[in-house]
Amino acid sequence: MSDQQVYAGMKAAFIGSECYPFVKTGGLGDVMYALPRALLRQGCDVRVILPCYLCIPEKYRERMTWKGSFMMNLTQDGRSFHVGIMELDLDGVTYDFIDNREFFDWGNPYTGLWEDIPKYCYFSKAALAALNYLDWIPDVIHCHDWQAALVPVYLRTLFDVTPVGAARSVLTIHNLRFQGICGIDHLKYWTGLPDYLFDYSVFKVNDREANMFKGGLAYTDRITTVSETYAQEIQTDFYGEGLNSHLWYHRAKLTGIVNGIDTDIWNSRTDKLLPAPYGEADALAAKRANKKALQERLGLAVDEGRFMVGLISRLTDQKGLDLIDAVFKQIADDGMQVVILGTGDPRYENAFRYYESVYPGQVCAYIKYDESLAHQIYAGADALLVPSLFEPCGLTQLIAMRYGTVPIVRETGGLKDTVEPYNAYTGEGNGFTFDRYQADLLLDAVRRAERVYYDERGRWDAIVARDMEKDVSWAHSADLYLKLYAELKG
Ligand code: ADP
Question: Of 123, 183, 430, 466, which alpha carbon lies 20 to 30 A from 490's?
Fold first, then answer.
């Protein structure tokens, strides 16, 4: 029997706070888009449940159809809230948007914990209520990050004896840093959940605080995270974000499954955003043409032969930007071009703006979120920096490899699992790596890459070719998720 037949009839509901192309702030949005499609290709029926944020572009809103609405009680004092269900079908995947003006009428999905806690309490409960309302009962409910972490708790408590209670749950950790921590009374009020859940084995952190992710991890049937290395790391003090003991306790149900990327969106052959699309055969010439176009667009000195390093990232401490800051001058003084695309912490935004002013024509700090420029950097740069302090999986190194751009990464989490270090003796490997979180080691990795680029071009070109051939698609990992679902279905 083929896998397709084994999984035919499997039904999975995805519940999460963001999903490309409706709303995306980071890798979670990519996964919520690409994994359901990959599962669908393998015969699984998938629905994705999302909040109906005001910031969802009009072109999608106008295609949504109204599936119904009802009132749902939520809080400890029995306040009821409206739940509207808007539906949209995109390439075979059904998206159900939970509509409520009180919670989702803000510009951005995340507006600060004080509002976000009630918002995602409401969303988690409404998502389960919507499945009952739609009479679409999945085998598995796949929840993502802290925003959907209450789902497994609601499922086994208030919804246990309702139709959707027949489903099993999987909770995926995309980033353990964000957990949804607030006062115990605040969470009790907004969830309306019984007091016995507010003990140390479920929500309680200390005498004052409760943690939504902690409760979800305790109640879900399976926990996954987005790489095998991160699955190990989060059971340690350094990476565990205060939940390491809790995760160690639940380790029997924890596995790591590495993310892939959507190879239709990230396809250098068909990418309409590229000045010069390319395949493996013409990559070297086309990458030079893309570099030239990028230099012209960004006002950098036009020189196709000059080593160009890119950075596409949220500008936060997680991403290892203090290391880059510490050795920026040495990197720039070597003469290479540096292109930064990102927004976030003003400390880093300002540091990179400053370097742009010191190195005009050589450094570009593009402090924005810009999909089209991201594509052009992936295609035009020679190397991409990802020196993260921690990195659950990381998608930018996968996209870079697919576009023949060589990643320079720290060996942590998914970066360690997806980038094989370049071996100077054999010439093998996918990128340049360093292990300890030290700026001098980052500088060394950048310089090793630069030397191979200028002095051993045959070897560099071989890395480019190898990276483009590497399978970074979802096919294998989607299969692993389906096996997990099948185990849960029993
Ligand atoms: P994280 O989820 O921690 O932000 P990932 O590497 O998993 O990091 O995913 C980042 C995603 O967001 C990638 O698709 C990357 O191309 C995209 N991205 C990050 N910053 C920007 C930006 N400023 N403009 C466009 N895309 C960006």
Answer: 123
Ligand 1 in reach of 461 Cβ (< 6 A): no
Each residue of 12-39: pLDDT tens digit? 999 999 999 999 988 899 999 999 999 9
pLDDT over 60 at 137, yes or no? yes
Kindly state the DSSP code that residue 226 receives in the 8-state scheme.
S
Q: Is the model's pLDDT at 5 over the cut of 80?
A: no
CB atoms under 10 Å from CB of 251, counted, come to 13
Over the stretch 35-44, which tens digit does the pLDDT of each residue have? Answer: 999 999 999 9
Distance CA 146, CA 139 (A): 21
Task: With CA atoms as reference, report the closest residue to 259 among 229, 282, 292, 302.
Answer: 229
Instruction: In whole angstroms, give the CA distance from residue 384 to residue 406.
Output: 6
Q: How far does residue 342's CA lie from ligand 1's centre (Å)?
A: 8
**Could you report how far apart the first and last alpha carbons of the chain are, in Å?**
18
- Do the beta carbons of residue 488 and residue 12 sit within 8 Å? no
The contacts of residue 481 (CB under 8 Å, 6+ apart) are 35, 39, 142, 170, 224, 257
Which amino acid is located at 30 in the chain?
D
According to DSSP, the β-strands at 209-211 and 308-312 are unpaired
- Ligand 1 near 396 CB (within 6 A): yes
Give the integer Cα–Cα distance in Å for 152 and 125. 10
